[in-house]
Write a structure and sequence with these properties.
Elements lengths: L4 H4 L3 H13 L4 H12 L3 H13 L3 E6 L2 E6 L3 H17 L3 H11 L4 H20 L1
Antiparallel strand pairs: 1-2
Helix pairs in contact: 3-4
Amino acid sequence: MLMTKTQSELTKAEWMIIKAVWASEPCTAPDVQHRLAKETRWTYSTVRTLMDRMVSKSLLTAEKVRNISLYRSAITQQQAQRSELVYALKHAFNGALTPMLQCLLDASSLTEAELDEIESLIKAKKKGAQKA
């Protein structure tokens, strides 16, 4: 599934809701409100409004079963993460991947094992590119 422009720009509130949905889908708005209650203190109407807007943005789907709306995610966690990275790459680094990676490496305290894993990913990507 390709992400549309509106899907790629999740707000902080939308991230909170989609994570709650991923954790317990299918779920209802009261389920999500309860899951986020301590963190947000949102009312039911706030959660329901946000979730309905997310349906219109194709981030969630809603199915009416009698009086209950069951919500499911319309995007995967990987799609949402990729979209956020592409957004940051485009807006913070003018689309330049190398400065973004350098910034991430400089900002993190990576272990030798983590660096080895990153190096392995790069080597595997190079091998894949050579075969193509």
